[in-house]
Design brief:
It comes from Candidatus Ruthenibacterium merdavium. It contains 17 helices and no strands. Helix content is 75%, strand content 0%. It has 353 residues and is an all-alpha fold.
Protein backbone atom coordinates (compact mmCIF):
# COMPACT_ATOMS: atom_id res chain seq x y z
CA UNK A 1 0.00 0.00 0.00
CA UNK A 2 2.80 2.42 0.91
CA UNK A 3 4.56 1.63 -2.35
CA UNK A 4 1.41 2.46 -4.33
CA UNK A 5 1.04 5.70 -2.41
CA UNK A 6 4.65 6.65 -3.13
CA UNK A 7 4.16 6.02 -6.85
CA UNK A 8 1.04 8.17 -6.80
CA UNK A 9 2.96 10.95 -5.08
CA UNK A 10 5.76 10.75 -7.65
CA UNK A 11 3.29 10.76 -10.55
CA UNK A 12 1.45 13.75 -9.10
CA UNK A 13 4.74 15.60 -8.58
CA UNK A 14 5.80 14.95 -12.18
CA UNK A 15 2.43 16.13 -13.53
CA UNK A 16 2.59 19.30 -11.46
CA UNK A 17 6.16 19.95 -12.58
CA UNK A 18 5.18 19.50 -16.24
CA UNK A 19 2.21 21.83 -15.83
CA UNK A 20 4.41 24.42 -14.13
CA UNK A 21 6.91 24.25 -17.00
CA UNK A 22 4.09 24.80 -19.50
CA UNK A 23 2.87 27.77 -17.50
CA UNK A 24 6.31 29.37 -17.28
CA UNK A 25 7.23 28.81 -20.92
CA UNK A 26 3.88 29.88 -22.40
CA UNK A 27 1.88 31.98 -19.92
CA UNK A 28 -0.28 33.49 -22.69
CA UNK A 29 -1.81 30.10 -23.50
CA UNK A 30 -2.36 29.48 -19.79
CA UNK A 31 -4.22 32.79 -19.52
CA UNK A 32 -6.45 31.84 -22.47
CA UNK A 33 -7.21 28.48 -20.86
CA UNK A 34 -8.14 30.08 -17.55
CA UNK A 35 -10.34 32.62 -19.32
CA UNK A 36 -12.03 29.81 -21.24
CA UNK A 37 -12.70 27.96 -17.99
CA UNK A 38 -14.13 31.07 -16.36
CA UNK A 39 -16.36 31.67 -19.38
CA UNK A 40 -17.62 28.08 -19.08
CA UNK A 41 -18.34 28.65 -15.40
CA UNK A 42 -20.27 31.86 -16.08
CA UNK A 43 -22.11 30.66 -19.18
CA UNK A 44 -22.89 27.08 -18.11
CA UNK A 45 -21.93 26.05 -14.57
CA UNK A 46 -23.09 28.92 -12.35
CA UNK A 47 -26.44 29.79 -14.03
CA UNK A 48 -27.53 26.18 -14.47
CA UNK A 49 -26.17 24.49 -11.34
CA UNK A 50 -25.99 27.01 -8.48
CA UNK A 51 -29.79 27.48 -8.14
CA UNK A 52 -30.28 23.74 -8.46
CA UNK A 53 -27.67 23.08 -5.74
CA UNK A 54 -29.60 25.33 -3.35
CA UNK A 55 -33.04 23.88 -4.08
CA UNK A 56 -31.94 20.25 -4.17
CA UNK A 57 -30.00 20.67 -0.91
CA UNK A 58 -33.20 21.80 0.85
CA UNK A 59 -35.42 19.15 -0.75
CA UNK A 60 -32.97 16.28 -0.19
CA UNK A 61 -31.98 17.06 3.39
CA UNK A 62 -33.33 15.13 6.34
CA UNK A 63 -36.45 13.08 5.68
CA UNK A 64 -36.93 14.69 2.27
CA UNK A 65 -34.43 12.32 0.69
CA UNK A 66 -36.21 9.31 2.25
CA UNK A 67 -39.61 10.45 0.97
CA UNK A 68 -38.36 11.12 -2.54
CA UNK A 69 -36.40 7.85 -2.70
CA UNK A 70 -39.36 5.46 -2.40
CA UNK A 71 -39.61 4.83 -6.17
CA UNK A 72 -35.95 3.72 -6.29
CA UNK A 73 -36.15 1.09 -3.55
CA UNK A 74 -36.56 -1.73 -6.14
CA UNK A 75 -33.29 -0.56 -7.72
CA UNK A 76 -31.27 -0.74 -4.49
CA UNK A 77 -32.95 -4.06 -3.65
CA UNK A 78 -31.77 -5.41 -7.01
CA UNK A 79 -28.28 -4.24 -6.03
CA UNK A 80 -28.52 -6.29 -2.82
CA UNK A 81 -28.79 -3.27 -0.50
CA UNK A 82 -31.46 -3.54 2.20
CA UNK A 83 -31.00 -0.21 3.97
CA UNK A 84 -34.13 1.95 3.53
CA UNK A 85 -31.91 5.04 3.33
CA UNK A 86 -29.77 3.72 0.46
CA UNK A 87 -32.07 4.98 -2.34
CA UNK A 88 -31.57 8.53 -1.05
CA UNK A 89 -27.98 8.45 -2.36
CA UNK A 90 -29.23 7.60 -5.86
CA UNK A 91 -31.87 10.34 -5.66
CA UNK A 92 -29.28 12.88 -4.52
CA UNK A 93 -26.96 11.87 -7.36
CA UNK A 94 -29.63 11.88 -10.05
CA UNK A 95 -31.20 15.17 -8.98
CA UNK A 96 -28.26 17.03 -7.47
CA UNK A 97 -25.35 15.58 -9.46
CA UNK A 98 -22.35 13.42 -8.60
CA UNK A 99 -21.18 15.68 -5.75
CA UNK A 100 -24.49 15.40 -3.89
CA UNK A 101 -24.60 11.65 -4.50
CA UNK A 102 -21.05 11.08 -3.27
CA UNK A 103 -21.68 13.18 -0.17
CA UNK A 104 -24.82 11.16 0.65
CA UNK A 105 -22.94 7.88 0.17
CA UNK A 106 -20.29 9.10 2.60
CA UNK A 107 -22.94 10.01 5.18
CA UNK A 108 -24.64 6.61 4.87
CA UNK A 109 -21.31 4.84 5.39
CA UNK A 110 -20.48 6.94 8.46
CA UNK A 111 -23.94 6.12 9.86
CA UNK A 112 -23.15 2.41 9.32
CA UNK A 113 -26.14 2.04 7.01
CA UNK A 114 -24.08 0.51 4.17
CA UNK A 115 -20.87 -1.47 3.71
CA UNK A 116 -17.90 -0.50 1.56
CA UNK A 117 -19.09 -2.71 -1.28
CA UNK A 118 -22.54 -1.19 -1.10
CA UNK A 119 -20.98 2.26 -1.05
CA UNK A 120 -19.09 1.47 -4.25
CA UNK A 121 -22.31 0.22 -5.87
CA UNK A 122 -24.17 3.37 -4.85
CA UNK A 123 -21.37 5.49 -6.32
CA UNK A 124 -21.76 3.62 -9.62
CA UNK A 125 -25.51 4.26 -9.61
CA UNK A 126 -25.41 7.89 -8.43
CA UNK A 127 -22.34 9.32 -10.19
CA UNK A 128 -24.05 11.15 -13.03
CA UNK A 129 -24.30 14.77 -14.11
CA UNK A 130 -27.42 16.44 -12.78
CA UNK A 131 -30.34 17.48 -14.98
CA UNK A 132 -29.49 21.16 -14.54
CA UNK A 133 -26.16 20.62 -16.27
CA UNK A 134 -27.21 18.03 -18.87
CA UNK A 135 -30.59 19.49 -19.86
CA UNK A 136 -30.01 23.22 -19.34
CA UNK A 137 -26.25 23.36 -19.86
CA UNK A 138 -25.43 20.77 -22.52
CA UNK A 139 -28.85 20.42 -24.12
CA UNK A 140 -30.20 23.98 -24.19
CA UNK A 141 -27.03 26.09 -24.18
CA UNK A 142 -24.58 23.95 -26.13
CA UNK A 143 -26.77 21.88 -28.48
CA UNK A 144 -29.68 24.29 -28.70
CA UNK A 145 -32.39 21.86 -27.54
CA UNK A 146 -33.20 21.10 -23.91
CA UNK A 147 -35.23 18.00 -24.88
CA UNK A 148 -32.09 16.38 -26.29
CA UNK A 149 -30.43 17.08 -22.96
CA UNK A 150 -33.25 15.39 -21.09
CA UNK A 151 -32.88 12.34 -23.33
CA UNK A 152 -29.16 12.15 -22.51
CA UNK A 153 -29.90 12.59 -18.81
CA UNK A 154 -32.37 9.70 -18.86
CA UNK A 155 -29.89 7.59 -20.81
CA UNK A 156 -27.04 8.11 -18.33
CA UNK A 157 -29.28 7.32 -15.35
CA UNK A 158 -30.52 4.11 -16.99
CA UNK A 159 -26.96 3.09 -17.86
CA UNK A 160 -25.76 3.84 -14.32
CA UNK A 161 -28.57 1.75 -12.80
CA UNK A 162 -27.81 -1.24 -15.02
CA UNK A 163 -24.08 -1.00 -14.28
CA UNK A 164 -24.76 -0.95 -10.53
CA UNK A 165 -26.94 -4.06 -10.75
CA UNK A 166 -24.35 -5.84 -12.89
CA UNK A 167 -21.46 -5.01 -10.57
CA UNK A 168 -23.44 -6.17 -7.53
CA UNK A 169 -22.85 -9.72 -8.81
CA UNK A 170 -19.18 -9.07 -9.63
CA UNK A 171 -17.77 -7.21 -6.65
CA UNK A 172 -16.66 -9.46 -3.79
CA UNK A 173 -17.69 -8.70 -0.22
CA UNK A 174 -14.76 -7.22 1.70
CA UNK A 175 -13.66 -9.01 4.85
CA UNK A 176 -14.89 -7.43 8.06
CA UNK A 177 -17.33 -5.29 6.15
CA UNK A 178 -20.44 -7.47 6.07
CA UNK A 179 -21.33 -7.10 9.73
CA UNK A 180 -21.96 -3.36 9.77
CA UNK A 181 -25.20 -2.45 11.52
CA UNK A 182 -27.28 0.63 11.09
CA UNK A 183 -26.51 3.38 13.56
CA UNK A 184 -28.88 5.69 15.33
CA UNK A 185 -27.70 8.82 13.58
CA UNK A 186 -30.58 10.54 11.87
CA UNK A 187 -30.23 13.04 9.06
CA UNK A 188 -31.42 16.58 9.79
CA UNK A 189 -32.86 19.19 7.51
CA UNK A 190 -31.17 22.41 6.56
CA UNK A 191 -32.45 25.97 6.25
CA UNK A 192 -31.95 28.35 3.35
CA UNK A 193 -28.71 29.83 4.68
CA UNK A 194 -27.09 26.41 5.05
CA UNK A 195 -28.32 25.42 1.60
CA UNK A 196 -26.84 28.57 0.03
CA UNK A 197 -23.51 28.07 1.84
CA UNK A 198 -23.37 24.44 0.70
CA UNK A 199 -24.26 25.46 -2.86
CA UNK A 200 -21.55 28.14 -2.88
CA UNK A 201 -18.99 25.57 -1.73
CA UNK A 202 -20.03 22.99 -4.34
CA UNK A 203 -20.14 25.60 -7.11
CA UNK A 204 -16.76 27.02 -6.16
CA UNK A 205 -15.14 23.57 -6.10
CA UNK A 206 -16.74 22.71 -9.43
CA UNK A 207 -15.64 25.99 -11.05
CA UNK A 208 -12.16 25.53 -9.64
CA UNK A 209 -11.75 22.13 -11.27
CA UNK A 210 -13.25 23.37 -14.55
CA UNK A 211 -10.84 26.31 -14.62
CA UNK A 212 -7.83 24.16 -13.72
CA UNK A 213 -8.50 21.59 -16.41
CA UNK A 214 -9.31 24.34 -18.92
CA UNK A 215 -5.82 25.66 -18.28
CA UNK A 216 -4.36 22.23 -19.01
CA UNK A 217 -6.47 21.60 -22.10
CA UNK A 218 -5.60 25.02 -23.58
CA UNK A 219 -2.19 23.73 -24.66
CA UNK A 220 -3.78 21.17 -26.98
CA UNK A 221 -6.36 23.56 -28.46
CA UNK A 222 -4.04 24.66 -31.33
CA UNK A 223 -3.84 21.02 -32.43
CA UNK A 224 -7.49 21.09 -33.54
CA UNK A 225 -10.92 20.66 -32.02
CA UNK A 226 -10.75 16.88 -32.38
CA UNK A 227 -7.58 16.66 -30.31
CA UNK A 228 -9.06 19.08 -27.80
CA UNK A 229 -12.12 16.87 -27.41
CA UNK A 230 -9.99 13.74 -27.08
CA UNK A 231 -7.90 15.30 -24.31
CA UNK A 232 -10.84 16.88 -22.48
CA UNK A 233 -12.69 13.55 -22.76
CA UNK A 234 -10.27 12.19 -20.15
CA UNK A 235 -9.81 15.43 -18.21
CA UNK A 236 -13.02 17.43 -17.74
CA UNK A 237 -16.58 16.88 -18.94
CA UNK A 238 -17.64 20.53 -19.36
CA UNK A 239 -14.86 21.44 -21.78
CA UNK A 240 -15.31 18.12 -23.59
CA UNK A 241 -18.98 18.94 -24.20
CA UNK A 242 -18.05 22.45 -25.35
CA UNK A 243 -15.51 21.00 -27.79
CA UNK A 244 -18.14 18.55 -29.04
CA UNK A 245 -20.69 21.33 -29.56
CA UNK A 246 -18.14 23.40 -31.48
CA UNK A 247 -17.14 20.53 -33.77
CA UNK A 248 -18.07 20.40 -37.45
CA UNK A 249 -19.29 16.81 -37.37
CA UNK A 250 -22.89 15.65 -37.19
CA UNK A 251 -22.09 13.51 -34.14
CA UNK A 252 -22.34 16.31 -31.60
CA UNK A 253 -25.00 14.55 -29.51
CA UNK A 254 -23.08 11.26 -29.49
CA UNK A 255 -19.85 13.06 -28.56
CA UNK A 256 -21.56 14.90 -25.70
CA UNK A 257 -23.15 11.64 -24.51
CA UNK A 258 -19.77 9.90 -24.55
CA UNK A 259 -18.18 12.75 -22.57
CA UNK A 260 -20.99 12.65 -20.01
CA UNK A 261 -20.42 8.92 -19.60
CA UNK A 262 -16.64 9.14 -19.22
CA UNK A 263 -16.97 12.05 -16.75
CA UNK A 264 -13.22 12.78 -16.82
CA UNK A 265 -10.53 12.98 -14.17
CA UNK A 266 -12.03 16.18 -12.72
CA UNK A 267 -15.24 14.41 -11.70
CA UNK A 268 -13.40 11.46 -10.19
CA UNK A 269 -11.28 13.83 -8.07
CA UNK A 270 -14.41 15.59 -6.85
CA UNK A 271 -16.14 12.30 -6.07
CA UNK A 272 -13.08 11.27 -4.08
CA UNK A 273 -13.20 14.55 -2.16
CA UNK A 274 -16.89 14.17 -1.26
CA UNK A 275 -17.07 10.40 -0.75
CA UNK A 276 -13.93 10.06 1.37
CA UNK A 277 -11.12 7.54 1.17
CA UNK A 278 -12.90 4.60 2.82
CA UNK A 279 -14.95 3.72 -0.27
CA UNK A 280 -12.97 2.53 -3.30
CA UNK A 281 -13.41 4.30 -6.63
CA UNK A 282 -11.98 1.42 -8.68
CA UNK A 283 -15.43 -0.15 -9.33
CA UNK A 284 -16.71 3.24 -10.48
CA UNK A 285 -13.75 3.66 -12.82
CA UNK A 286 -14.12 0.15 -14.28
CA UNK A 287 -17.87 0.59 -14.68
CA UNK A 288 -17.29 3.41 -17.19
CA UNK A 289 -16.21 0.76 -19.72
CA UNK A 290 -19.71 -0.74 -19.55
CA UNK A 291 -21.50 2.55 -19.01
CA UNK A 292 -20.22 4.18 -22.22
CA UNK A 293 -21.79 1.77 -24.75
CA UNK A 294 -24.98 1.61 -22.67
CA UNK A 295 -25.15 5.41 -22.62
CA UNK A 296 -24.77 5.65 -26.39
CA UNK A 297 -27.32 2.87 -26.93
CA UNK A 298 -29.98 4.44 -24.69
CA UNK A 299 -29.40 7.90 -26.15
CA UNK A 300 -29.85 6.60 -29.67
CA UNK A 301 -32.88 4.54 -28.60
CA UNK A 302 -34.64 7.47 -26.94
CA UNK A 303 -33.97 9.81 -29.86
CA UNK A 304 -35.33 7.18 -32.25
CA UNK A 305 -38.46 6.79 -30.12
CA UNK A 306 -39.01 10.56 -30.17
CA UNK A 307 -38.03 11.57 -33.74
CA UNK A 308 -39.56 15.04 -33.32
CA UNK A 309 -36.97 15.86 -30.69
CA UNK A 310 -34.15 14.66 -32.92
CA UNK A 311 -35.39 16.66 -35.90
CA UNK A 312 -35.87 19.77 -33.77
CA UNK A 313 -32.27 19.70 -32.51
CA UNK A 314 -30.06 22.55 -33.67
CA UNK A 315 -26.92 20.82 -34.93
CA UNK A 316 -24.92 23.88 -35.88
CA UNK A 317 -22.63 25.60 -33.42
CA UNK A 318 -24.80 27.49 -30.94
CA UNK A 319 -22.37 27.96 -28.08
CA UNK A 320 -21.26 31.53 -27.58
CA UNK A 321 -19.74 33.36 -24.64
CA UNK A 322 -21.61 36.50 -23.64
CA UNK A 323 -19.71 37.92 -20.70
CA UNK A 324 -16.18 39.33 -20.83
CA UNK A 325 -13.40 37.63 -18.92
CA UNK A 326 -13.26 40.34 -16.23
CA UNK A 327 -16.92 39.74 -15.33
CA UNK A 328 -16.25 36.01 -15.13
CA UNK A 329 -13.30 36.64 -12.81
CA UNK A 330 -15.41 38.86 -10.55
CA UNK A 331 -18.13 36.22 -10.20
CA UNK A 332 -15.60 33.50 -9.49
CA UNK A 333 -13.82 35.62 -6.85
CA UNK A 334 -17.16 36.47 -5.20
CA UNK A 335 -17.93 32.76 -4.87
CA UNK A 336 -14.49 32.15 -3.36
CA UNK A 337 -14.86 35.07 -0.91
CA UNK A 338 -18.30 33.88 0.15
CA UNK A 339 -16.94 30.41 0.83
CA UNK A 340 -13.98 31.87 2.72
CA UNK A 341 -16.31 33.91 4.92
CA UNK A 342 -18.39 30.83 5.68
CA UNK A 343 -15.25 28.87 6.61
CA UNK A 344 -13.98 31.61 8.91
CA UNK A 345 -17.37 31.76 10.63
CA UNK A 346 -17.30 28.02 11.29
CA UNK A 347 -13.76 28.29 12.71
CA UNK A 348 -14.82 31.02 15.11
CA UNK A 349 -17.81 28.97 16.24
CA UNK A 350 -15.54 25.98 16.96
CA UNK A 351 -13.17 28.17 18.98
CA UNK A 352 -16.07 29.52 21.04
CA UNK A 353 -17.26 25.99 21.73
Amino acid sequence: MQKNESWKAVALWLLCAAALCLFLTDPATAAKGVQSGLHACVETIIPTMFPFFVLSRILLSGQGAVWLSWPLRPLTAAMGITSPKAPSAVVCGWLGGFAAGADQVSQLYRQREISKKQGSLLLIASTVSGPSFVAAGVGARLLGNAAVGWMMFAAQCAAAALCAILFSFILPQEKGDAGRKAGAVQGKGCDASEAVASAVQATTILCGYVTLFSFLSAYVAPLGNGVRYAVCFFLEVTNACIAAAESDTGLRVAMCAAALSAMGASVFLQVRAFAGKEISLKPLLISRVVHLPLMLFFTRLLLSIFPSIRSAAVWENVYASRLPADAACVLFVLCALAMHGKTEGLRKQKKCV
